[in-house]
Design brief:
Rossmann fold; 2 domains; 7-stranded mixed beta sheet; about 30% helix; binds S-adenosylmethionine
Length: about 375
């Protein structure tokens, strides 16, 4: 059986001419793993970091595999895999799972689209080496421009054999075997105390910014007391390591905060940050794509430090998608506070999507705005 990658969609993720649902890394991983997949028993294969289902669905189709265990950090990748699996009649060949021991127990073959973050690499490698079969074979790969020698050093701590393969179309495969059962797993989430904010920040490997406080977020935190002072509920959209959720909850004990992110690591990190600061009663954490599960007109205050990278591709689409989501979920008179890189100039887009938009503060790098949802429920399209 052959698998036609051309049928894969990115949906519901952003689709555009320069964005693709599979890359040469998928081909390389699958080619290198071909013989191992041919002889794999059901339930012995784990797939990591699959973008839109190429690895999972090609394995299932070409090698007639079932019982695949799949973990994807982003919820939109999970939805895209489900969508593509449904269309190709493979909805029952895999189970989506969180990153943890169960994903790897007794796994014989692991297919892995390598992450760019060394922390994520270490967190995953430690789990594989600890829980997978001693004879596990890991077929990994990545885009050459995102691969560094430091990655090999990290991987060598967890595998006795780390063998790079021949590069093809700007991707390179890596074959890992001989899990070092004696390797000391780094402990995740990592935890750091920030004296200036009086906050513990926790982060799993795949979390934006790790345990650091993002510079844009740091700029925004000074304005927490001004954000819709009468609000009883706030949403931290794209909560990452939970800095904004924790700062809001700590500064305003009457406020209930919902931190939400499409990244599983971010959700786990914000949960850990809330616990570490004894704020778990005030902070709820939800994994969701762009507020999809939130009722329209339900929020008085949303705080956002939007991403401007989609994977490795610079693309402003994601910020605009989050502005539109915010406009739907804000109640009339509700406020969106947004911090962004000064050169991005989102003010017009915010006014158009949400309502009257005012620049609250600006420094050499960042702009902080507040947009107020028009009482009529339609954006006013003005800015001041
Ligand atoms: C620039 S980071 C900000 C993280 C955190 N709020 C902070 O201040 O450090 C943007 C966050 O948005 C999240 N994100 C990206 N796309 C999203 C989506 N469609 N729905 C929800 N969150 C998303 C990312 O996972 C990331 O954690």
């Amino acid at each position: 059986m052959v698998f036609d990658f051309g049928h894969l969609r990115r949906f519901p993720d952003i689709e555009a001419e320069n964005l693709f649902a599979h890359d040469a890394t998928d081909d390389l991983i699958l080619q290198q793993a071909y013989a191992a997949l041919e002889t794999s028993a059901p339930g012995s294969v784990t797939v990591l970091g699959d973008r839109y289902g190429a690895l999972t669905l090609a394995s299932a189709t070409v090698h007639d595999l079932s019982g695949l265990r799949v973990s994807q950090d982003g919820i939109s990748g999970e939805y895209a895999l489900a969508f593509n699996a449904d269309r190709s009649g493979h909805a029952d060949v895999y189970t989506s799972m969180a990153l943890g021991p169960e994903l790897f127990t007794e796994a014989e073959v692991v297919l892995w689209q390598l992450p760019r973050s060394l922390d994520e690499l270490a967190e995953v490698a430690a789990l594989i080496s600890t829980y997978a079969s001693p004879t596990v074979q890991v077929f990994a790969g990545g885009r050459i421009k995102h691969m560094t020698l430091a990655m090999n050093t990290v991987l060598a701590e967890y595998f006795s054999s780390v063998v790079p393969g021949r590069a093809w179309r700007k991707s390179r495969p890596l074959h890992l075997s001989g899990p070092r059962k004696e390797a000391t797993a780094l402990s995740f989430p990592k935890k750091e105390f920030h004296a200036e904010q009086g906050l513990w920040i926790c982060a799993h490997g795949a979390t934006f910014g790790g345990t650091k406080i993002d510079v844009g977020t740091r700029f925004l935190l000074d304005y927490v007391p001004q954000m819709r002072p009468d609000a009883s509920l706030a949403i931290d959209l794209g909560c990452g390591n939970g800095t904004i959720s924790a700062a809001l909850a700590k500064a305003r004990p009457e406020l209930k905060v919902i931190g939400t992110d499409q990244s599983a690591a971010a959700v786990a990190s914000t949960t850990a940050t809330a616990l570490a600061n004894a704020l778990a009663d005030q902070i709820e954490v939800v994994r969701d794509d762009a507020l999809a599960g939130f009722a329209s007109g339900s929020a008085e205050l949303i705080v956002l430090n939007p991403p401007f990278h989609v994977g490795a591709t610079v693309h402003a689409g994601i910020a605009h998608k989050l502005f539109a989501a915010t406009a739907r979920v804000l109640a009339p008179g509700g406020e969106l506070w947004c911090v962004y890189n000064r050169h991005l100039d989102y003010k017009g887009a915010l006014a158009k999507a949400v309502g009257t938009t005012r620049v609250v503060a600006r420094n050499s790098k960042f702009t902080l705005t507040v947009s107020t949802k028009a009482a009529s429920g339609t954006a006013e399209g003005s800015s001041s």
